[in-house]
Design goal:
Elements lengths: L2 H10 L5 H17 L4 H8 L3 H10 L5 H12 L5 H12 L4 H19 L2 H13 L3 E5 L4 H14 L3 E3 L5 H7 L8 E5 L6 H12 L3 E6 L12 E4 L3 E3 L2 E3 L1 H17 L1 H17 L8 H13 L1
Parallel strand pairs: 1-2, 1-3, 3-4, 4-5
Antiparallel strand pairs: 6-7
Helix pairs in contact: 2-4, 3-4, 7-12, 9-12
């Protein structure tokens, strides 16, 4: 359990009312369930009013129950097993429509990312990437897809981009063997944090390279050895890690880099378009028929 939250509860335990002690005890024993309960639900579970739950949150130093709840959610995401994730998702969705619920959660994490991420860190990280000799990109497990996406687009913008294959620690270090102070490593890691990603960032740091962590919190293991931490909220949806906010952050990073290099990249992009046309890389699409088909599906 989060040391800060545990400490807050323990320090205030003697001053709690009887109802607040019931809440505190239940949180200590069932924090994985409480993290996704409404204040009303928690109150009815332990036998107190919703207002008592709200007062409890402010009593231990939070602005309100939503902030306490977010603190618990951040705390447990790196600890939940896949079985617990299924239980949490089932509890959160209940009788609600699954599609609407998941899309709503994704919209919420993007909104919270906008409020949370540092603009200063973001633009400094972008300038650091542009100044690098080589850019190494690594993401393990579910973050491999994000790393591949980022590497593809940076490969269009920069001369030397290396997507590190996170198959084993030995192979990761082998691929990073020539990294030095002129290079940048971008490591993507979200709960449950990959040990390989953390060790790769540490290795790059020890070699003098600049490190950029794309992760969910400054307390993330991969952020500890990074020069810049680009923070994006993520969420749990059963066995799936919701990574829409990290992907949106990556989109913003690619757009930033492309605009900063616009003058030098225009000839490259024109040449790329000519190559794609010559070798028929993309299918030709009849937009008029596509719009008709979309209208039929929407009316169905």
């Amino acid at each position: 359990m989060n040391d800060s939250l545990t400490q807050r509860i323990q320090e205030n335990m003697r001053s709690f009312s009887k109802g607040q002690r019931l809440i505190a005890t239940y949180i200590m024993e069932h924090y994985d369930k409480v993290a996704f309960m409404t204040a009303s639900r928690l109150g009815s579970t332990v036998g107190v009013s919703e207002s008592t739950v709200v007062r409890f949150a402010t009593e231990i130093g939070y602005d309100g129950y939503p902030e306490l709840q977010r603190a618990m959610q951040e705390m447990i995401r790196s600890k939940l097993t896949i079985v617990q994730r299924m239980d949490v998702t089932r509890e959160r969705i209940g009788d609600n429509d699954i599609l609407d619920t998941v899309l709503g959660q994704d919209s919420d994490v993007i909104r919270r990312t906008m409020e949370y991420t540092s603009h200063d860190e973001f633009y400094k990280a972008a300038d650091t990437i542009l100044a690098a000799r080589k850019v190494y990109i690594l993401g393990a497990r579910s973050c491999q897809a994000l790393a591949s996406f980022l590497a593809y687009y940076l490969g269009l913008l920069l001369e030397d981009v290396i997507l590190v294959q996170a198959t084993s620690e030995a192979e990761i270090f082998q691929q990073l063997i020539h990294i030095n102070e002129n290079d940048v490593v971008i490591v993507l890691s979200f709960p449950r944090y990959s040990r390989k990603a953390t060790k790769a960032m540490q290795f790059a740091h020890e070699c003098g390279a600049k490190g950029i962590a794309i992760t969910d919190t400054a307390a993330s293991p991969v952020a500890k050895h990074a020069d810049y931490a680009l923070l994006a909220r993520s969420d749990i949806a059963a066995i799936v890690d919701s990574l829409v906010a990290p992907l949106s952050l990556i989109d913003a990073l690619v757009v930033t880099l492309s605009l900063k290099k616009q003058k030098t990249m225009d000839p490259t992009f024109k040449r790329l378009e000519a190559i794609w046309d010559e070798y028929h890389v993309y299918e030709k699409v009849d937009n008029e028929n596509t719009e008709k088909d979309d209208t039929k599906h929407a009316e169905a």
